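Re: that backbone. Tokens:
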């Protein structure tokens, strides 16, 4: 039998074991299992302790959320294991670079969060954001390859941006969202003005969603002509939205908004349906040019969605040109390549839009198969006054001729520009000189005046 001392020792051992177990469970609940950083719960507790400590004299401090730009294509191209390895490398860099007293946690997915007790105002937040951004921008080692990433940041400063955890976190998320809207590697510190801007964007989003549901987003068409004859050979479809309350909203605003908020597919499918329905009544030799978004070039279902629309409207795939930008392709080149091959196999032609403005246009021409190249209007607008633009356009036309690609010059607004381009051997042109974008009914009138009368 056990004596009292042994029994007491066993009881103490069991109590210690339970305490260790509870301590371990507590640590697990507050730790991200992949990176070893704290998680959202730890960040919340850290912030609440800071607020309590400063209750009598609420000195400011900052929180931040950082999101890795372009992380999803890493998983798509190299697999989840490579993605996890990069997240661990990011965590290691963040732990090493944050100042004493600061806390870094993994917020979830490819987001990380920070508490900076000694950052009191916007300038300090921006400075530390720039430092962390630089640290994260160095190459990541995946064994046989290196990859680069950027990061976007949203800061919120207590108590101006919120007095409790949820409110402050929401302000940081609002600032981060604005950073993501502005592009890669941006830093935003929350302010009332930014909150109002984001509120307007949300109102605009809801109005656009309703417009798509109610079929209220329209399509206009701009002629693409043969420069030798001035005769239209096709039309580019362009989105137009005139809201009863908001008035005319530029596509430069609402198309990126649809991409950011994740409903560009619904918008694009509506526009393609309307465009092909209208183009069905044109002469069969005229083509329809339509823009694909970067989101669609990352969606494996894009080709089948387009074919489904063409089947419903009865539009010949061989009359369809799809325009893509180099920037859109670079987001996920391998997925884009597969989608474009599927589309070309169906007889759809592919045009490279805004040529000359990307980072590696010649590489894109080598790696992808295109039917047309559209010279960006930035070069065309200066062709009469800038010798560099003139030589660039000559070189593009000569190169495309050697590659068997058609060339379309965009943004032609004057006869002199059209004449120079024609002399250089450019076959096709587009711009206000030949016609502004107009709706389907006005396009038919244009064809009656400029096409049927001359073709008989």
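Recovered sequence:
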């Amino acid at each position: 039998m056990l004596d009292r001392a042994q029994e007491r020792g066993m009881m103490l051992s069991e109590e210690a074991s339970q305490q260790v177990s509870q301590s371990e469970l507590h640590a697990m609940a507050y730790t991200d299992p992949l990176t070893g950083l704290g998680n959202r719960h730890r960040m919340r507790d850290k912030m609440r302790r800071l607020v309590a400590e400063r209750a009598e004299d609420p000195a400011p401090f900052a929180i931040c959320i950082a999101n890795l730009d372009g992380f999803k294509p890493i998983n798509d191209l190299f697999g989840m294991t490579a993605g996890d390895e990069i997240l661990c490398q990011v965590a290691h860099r963040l732990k090493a670079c944050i100042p004493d007293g600061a806390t870094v946690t993994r917020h979830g997915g490819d987001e990380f969060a920070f508490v900076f007790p000694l950052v009191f105002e916007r300038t300090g937040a921006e400075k530390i954001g720039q430092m962390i951004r630089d640290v994260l921008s160095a190459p990541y080692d995946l064994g046989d390859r290196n990859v680069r990433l950027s990061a976007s940041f949203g800061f919120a400063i207590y108590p101006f941006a919120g007095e409790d955890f949820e409110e402050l976190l929401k302000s940081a998320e609002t600032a981060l969202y604005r950073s993501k809207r502005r592009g890669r590697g941006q830093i935003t510190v929350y302010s009332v003005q930014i909150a109002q801007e984001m509120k307007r964007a949300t109102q605009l989003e809801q109005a656009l969603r309703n417009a798509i549901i109610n079929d209220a987003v329209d399509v206009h068409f701009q002629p693409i002509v043969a420069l030798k004859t001035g005769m239209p050979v096709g039309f580019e479809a362009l989105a137009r939205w005139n809201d009863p309350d908001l008035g005319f909203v530029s596509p430069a605003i609402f198309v990126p908004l649809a991409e950011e908020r994740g409903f560009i597919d619904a918008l694009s499918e509506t526009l393609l349906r309307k465009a092909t329905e209208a183009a069905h009544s044109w002469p069969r030799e005229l083509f329809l040019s339509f823009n694909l978004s970067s989101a669609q070039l990352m969606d494996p279902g894009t080709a089948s969605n387009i074919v489904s629309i063409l089947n419903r409207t009865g539009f010949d795939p061989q009359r369809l040109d799809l325009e893509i930008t180099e920037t859109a392709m670079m987001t996920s080149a391998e997925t884009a390549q597969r989608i474009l091959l599927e589309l070309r196999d169906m007889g759809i032609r592919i045009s490279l839009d805004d040529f000359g403005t990307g980072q590696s246009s010649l590489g894109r021409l080598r790696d992808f198969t295109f039917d047309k190249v559209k010279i960006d209007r930035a070069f065309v607008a200066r062709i009469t006054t800038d010798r560099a633009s003139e030589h660039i356009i000559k070189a593009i036309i000569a190169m495309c001729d050697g590659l068997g690609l058609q060339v379309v010059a965009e943004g032609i607004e004057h006869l002199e520009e059209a004449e120079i381009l024609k002399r250089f051997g450019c076959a096709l042109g587009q711009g206000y000189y030949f016609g502004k974008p107009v709706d389907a009914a006005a396009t038919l009138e244009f064809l009656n005046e400029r096409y049927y009368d001359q073709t008989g």
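Residues 337 and 368 are 7 Å apart (CA to CA). The domain at 202-455 is CATH 3.20.20.450 (TIM Barrel).
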